[in-house]
Structures are given as C-alpha cells and as structure tokens.
C-alpha cells in the first residue's frame, strides 16, 4: 500500500478537483480555506469508523466534493462545521454498509455458488496503518465490539468519546435531541461493557 497522504497532498487533491468545477476566485478561496480548516477533523472522524487512513482520506475527499456541490444549498439551519461532519458520518456509515453487504454476498457465493453483485465494490485496504494502535488482541476485540453496535449508538459514542464533541453538537450532527444522544451513549456503553466482559472472561 502506498504511504498515507500528507495534509498538503490531500489539500492538493481536493483543491485540484475544485478548480475544475469553478472559476469564481472568491468561492475558490473560501472552499480552500474550508478544506484547510476542517480536513484533519473530517479525516479523523471518518477514520474512527473505518480504521484505515487511506480509506478515511478517500471518504474525506468524497465529503468535500459533496460539500462543494451542495454549498449553495446550505441554509445556515446549523453551523457549517456541523453540516460538514454530518456528511462525514453519513459517508462513513455508507462505506461500512457496503463492506458488510460485500461480506454477506461473498459468504452466499461460497455457500451456494451465486454470482457476487458486490464484486465491483472497492475492497478495504488489507494493510492498515493503524496496526500500531489496534494490533493487539484486546484492541481488536474493542473494535469488533464497536462494530457490533447499532449505527446510531456507535456514532454517538465515537463522536463523544473519541472526537470530543459535546452532547448538543452530537445532537445537531445526528439531527436529534440532547436527551436522545445521552440515551444513545448510555446504551452504547452498556452494550460495549456487556460484550467486552464476555470476551475477556473467555480469555481466562
């Protein structure tokens, strides 16, 4: 696998796309500033879901392409950053669903020999630059436990515990209420604790 892109390389990739779409200097400058301000947080947010830097950067590029296409439709009903991170979460969850669908169809193909309609979907990178962080068995169990959570619980938990968002910010991103966010985080913790206690007891 190629080495992870630097922030400058990522900026060049996304801005190169943007320059092909518009000749408006003020909009170009605004978009470039927007990417510079939010790119690392968007990449990190995507990474929390996919655990692969290269996939996270690809998703972040998709996020900013959609931001560029939809910027004129933004109505300031929420903060611009909230809107951007909502897109990042949606893209990340869609990516995970495609992966799960690919695995399901691959399993069916092995069992009954059907053609795999998910073959054209991009496979996740096999070489993970996060191995330093998640290479040990217990970290893998934590990642698997996170992946077992319902999407809304997983999203609320990751945004709260890993990205440091407050409950109101998470509510804005998920377009729900603060009490609903608090409930999601509480249920996520409870489900994680139950799953991990069972996993760790099996080691003894």
TrEMBL record:
Protein name: RNA polymerase, sigma-24 subunit, ECF subfamily
MF annotations from Gene Ontology: DNA binding; sigma factor activity
Matching PANTHER family: RNA POLYMERASE ECF-TYPE SIGMA FACTO, RNA POLYMERASE SIGMA FACTOR
Gene Ontology terms: biological process: DNA-templated transcription initiation
Keyword Transcription regulation: yes
Keyword Transcription regulation belongs to the record: yes
Similarity section: Belongs to the sigma-70 factor family. ECF subfamily.
Source species of the chain: Chlorobaculum parvum (strain DSM 263 / NCIMB 8327)
Pfam assignment, any one: Sigma70_r4_2
Keyword terms, alphabetized: Sigma factor, Transcription, Transcription regulation
Entry superkingdom: Bacteria
